[in-house]
Design brief:
alpha+beta, Glutaredoxin, two-stranded antiparallel ribbon, 10 helices, 6 strands
Length: about 240
Amino acid sequence: MSDDALSPDALFSSDASTVTVWSDIGCPWATLALHTLHAAAERRGVRLVVDHRVFPLELFNNQSTPKPIIDAEVVAIGAKEPALGWRLWSAPEYTYPGTILPAMEAVQAAKAAEVGGLPASDQLDTALRHAFYAQNRCISTPSEILAVAAECPLVDEKALAAAIERGEGRAALYRDFAVAGGPRVQGSPHLFTAAGVDVHNPGADFRWTANPQEGGFPDFHAYSADWAEGVLDSVTAAPAEG
């Protein structure tokens, strides 16, 4: 990997007001962390700017994330945080997403100014996660991704459709994959800020009882949302006077 891929700019935004979040939409832990961060920002009445970066589990594992693993995590997390509104997949099994990569590519494509920029990208990411975990929608198909985008006021759906047709977002996904393979990004989710926040899967106290591929379960002991306050403090603090 090149030195550029390991530079701070490759890991997180240099904008002091931005939280860079490395994650996979198909990762329930990342979705919990983002929900916690957004809820904390709403309570404080502050504007949250999130730069979504991709930690593509499918590319690391050379397979889609097994549904039984996601199901087990959804049950464990949903029981601790019922406000998420998650449910086990109840739509027909044949509609279950075989890949989440197209959804994450769309989130990257939404960063373009003509689509809506970072605010639109974050709104689309949140909506796609809700569509998957709470509404059991197949977010691997372009038509469903665009249907979700149509529900996002900040997203220019037509511009996003054109960007998807051109394949925009895929190059960004693979660039992120290259960086995420380095030593600094530990997994999904991992949060960074220019002020020094560097935290992987914050607030969650859990362990797998055994290898999840061999029938283990996530033993979710406790969850603390306090970490979100520190992240928000790092992006809302006034710059030091020189």
